[in-house]
Amino acid sequence: MTNPQSQISNPKIRSSLVALLVYTLAALVVFYPVPFRLNSVLAGFTARDGWEHTWWLWFARRLLLEGRGLDDLYLINHPAGLQHPYQWSLACFSLIALPLASLFSPAATFNLMVLGSFVLCGLATYQLCRYLTHNHWAAIVGGAIFAFSSNRLGHALGGWLPQMTAYLYPWYALLLIRTLRRPTLRRSIGLGILAGIGALVWPMHILYFMLPLTLVIVGADLVRRRRTFFQDHRVHYLGLAFAISLTIALPFLLPLILGRLQGSSSYLSTSGIVGHSTDLLAFFTPSPYHPVLAPLGLVPAFARRVLPNQEALRASLAYPGLVAVLLALWGVLRTRPRSFDGPVLSKVEGLRTSPWSWAVLAAGAALLALGPILVVGGKAVEYAVDGYQSHVLLPYALVRKLPLLDLGRTPGRLNATGMLGLGVLAAYGLADFLPRLAASRWRAGLLALAVVALILFECLPLWPFPAGDATIPPVIQYIAGQPGDGALLHLPMSRRRVNNRALYFQTATGRPIVGGEVLRMLPETLPWWETIEGLVVADPAPDVVPRPTVAQRRAWLRHFDVDWVLLHRLEAADETRYRPFIEELLGPAVVEDETLIAFPVPEDTSAPTEPRLYTFSRQGWHPPERDGNLWRRWMYNDGQLYVYSTREETGSLRFTVDSHLEFPVLEVYLGEQLWDSFVVGERTTYTTCPFTLTQGMNVFRFHAPGGCPDVLDDPRCWSDALLAPPADGGPLPCDPEAAPTTCRTFVFDDTSFVPQGDLLPGAGLDINLGNQMRLRGWELDTTTLRPGETLTVSLVWEATAELSEQYVVFVHLLSPDGTLAAQHDAPPVGQLLPPSAWPPGATFGYPVTLELPADLPAGDYRLLTGVYLWPSLERLPVLTDVPGAEVNAVEIGNVRVAP
């Protein structure tokens, strides 16, 4: 057996322990007071992403112990739960934390993971630099530069634990270099396993760390070796390593990849890429909130433009440090190549390394971190050529076209990769520089430690390190002690801080929560969250859909098994906005503390008396507006309506719609399926094709494919006539340069689901006329008239083919003996809409008027409609067997002419 004492006395192990001690002490200083309050604080800004990742470390352990998949987020998005395929890509990250999560509290687990990530990043980079430079103290400095770079400390401020967990990649680089220099089966297998594990820490690490490292290291080796690169089965061993890594990682990454290919993971592609790119000036300024440099006035004046507040430190820090840059420059200019593996090498192995490949990595990553366009001092740089205004495009604009890279909107995080290259270069520089200044090993060590201290000092963003209070509030402790397992509804969940607090508090209660955003909001979360939260929020006004009463709201909350409503006191306006109505709905709060107010939902509440609950999505709609006796809602270009139903039934969605645009098309989606489309003219009531309303949540999406133009906000300005100028001589109310504008397409009123049995006789039809047009509905303004009066018939037609001017729609009023009493013959939509503007598949409704003769005898008359071709007068056959259908006409009703 190997003697443990002999292992410790091994120079490499002893040197690594010294490095580990240095980085541990550095972490204790940089993150003070977090290491000394592991259970009571969370490292980083309060209620930021660190709280979400703390929850995930707790919940991932729970999933693994229960034998569930990592995508089964059954405790959030109550009552439906959530399947989040992205969580499979965190398999390695979750397993790394499992031992700590089993031994410590959620807060301590997170804090130890943060501290450990910095210590291990330093150690891994140390071992890489030690192998390349053969200098222990220079390698310690190189490890400190990467581990405690300002960019990584910014990640710690934001609580971005997966981004901080980057220690596998210096080890990956080291093993890749060793495999290239002396390829063996053992090294190939080890490289493949390490790469497979590294791919499951955080998907973007594959593109931000592993891909650049692989390209630079393999590319540099290929350039140096040229033809000899393909000897010694080097390519075969690299292929084997790649195959092993793919075998390990692909099963976990496959849900994410398939979702991307199928378009179901579009929620991951978010905007904000320019805002998450690095400002060029960020490379030249330390934190403007530095505890020493800022008070002494040693921070450049432009720093506040780059980092306007402390929150900006999370993603915008990029200062590499003057010491690190000077050492790296020395390493590039002064370092002579060293042999790979000692003095005795074969011809194939007798090639030499150079710091230039690491310079390419550092510079390339820094360039890509600038994002797709150049931003300087908080503003995108623009220039004009021949009257054309443009931005300065950067290489990332092209690189972003790589598969899956568009899932990431944070090119600034490539700075961490650049700092790894800079750390290696600085180690090269110090390895050359130390022998010139320090003859003894101890003197070299003291100098290296002094350099480490300077590096830490330069990169500090804030000190003491910010930390949020992680103690469980009294309200949560009280609820955790109450019987029951119903859900908690946190308000306002739309705020990310409330969402993160709700997730973290779940580690104490174990109860499900309504809503819950992890990483990014999944589309299936919004309908449930907005529907249930809408029950405890006072409506500002009547709406265009049926709204529940206070008693019905309590019944719905109990139906959804919500036990508690928790109002977060993070902003004073929230309590004023929410509390009065919640007290009216649920009664006074049972318990409250400085940050939370808890309202129990009464248990003795009856079941809902209404079978359906309607909710408009928060995005896409203007608030309800009063128009005479009507309440109406304007839509932007896309708005959703959620209909929760307690039972399954067949029917149609019926709504009345108008638009200020000229015959725009309105599409209605049921889920992801285009269910119906309408051409909107004057205010018209439409009924969709029948469908089955499922038991549970149904999502309808109204979409304006023509887009949403900005219009003057005052509806009085939409007519051709402008208002009179103001008496004071100010600007015209409808002056486009002075009046506010907004985006509006359609305005809705009187919207609801109508069961099939409750539809009016003329609604919800689908009568096929010659495969050219379909009669979708009709409505009479009255069924009793007197001679000489006007009968108005509203017809709703669908064009199933491209129409021409040759089609004529007829409406005939036939006397009891079959003679023609009155008629209307005109193109399908009269003079309202050119047939070429009526897209096939779209429905259009319009009124038709018939003038009754003054001498029309009293009696019962039949009303028929159909379509014929002009000038042949050939009628389109009726191909649908419905009551009232004839060979080439459809009877749509009976009219009584009174004497």
The percent range for helix content is 25-40%
So how many helices? Answer: 24
What proportion of the residues form beta strands (DSSP E)? 15-25%
Overall pLDDT metric: 89
Distance between the termini: 117 Å
Structural class: alpha+beta
This entry's quaternary arrangement is single chain
Q: How many whole angstroms does the radius of gyration measure? A: 35 Å
Q: Report the major sheet.
A: 9 strands, mixed
Low-confidence stretches: 339-352
* Shape annotation: elongated
Strand order of the largest sheet: 11-14-20-16-17-30-27-25-24
How many distinct beta strands? 32
The overall number of domains is: 4
Textual characterization of the structure:
The structure is a single chain. This protein is an alpha+beta fold and 899 residues long. It folds into 4 domains: 4-30 and 84-341 and 353-459, no CATH class; 53-83 and 472-546 and 554-607, no CATH class; 612-708 and 744-758, Jelly Rolls; 767-897, Coagulation Factor XIII, Chain A, domain 1 (Distorted Sandwich). The protein is 36% helix and 20% strand. It is built from 24 helices and 32 strands. Strands 11-14-20-16-17-30-27-25-24 form a 9-stranded mixed beta sheet, with helices on one face. Strands 12, 13, 15, 18, 19 and 23 form a 6-stranded antiparallel beta sheet that branches. A 5-stranded mixed beta sheet has the order 26-32-31-28-29, with no helix packed on it. Helix 3 runs parallel beside helix 21 and helix 5 runs parallel beside helix 9 (168-181). The longest helix has 29 residues, at 234-262. The radius of gyration is 35 Å and the shape is elongated.
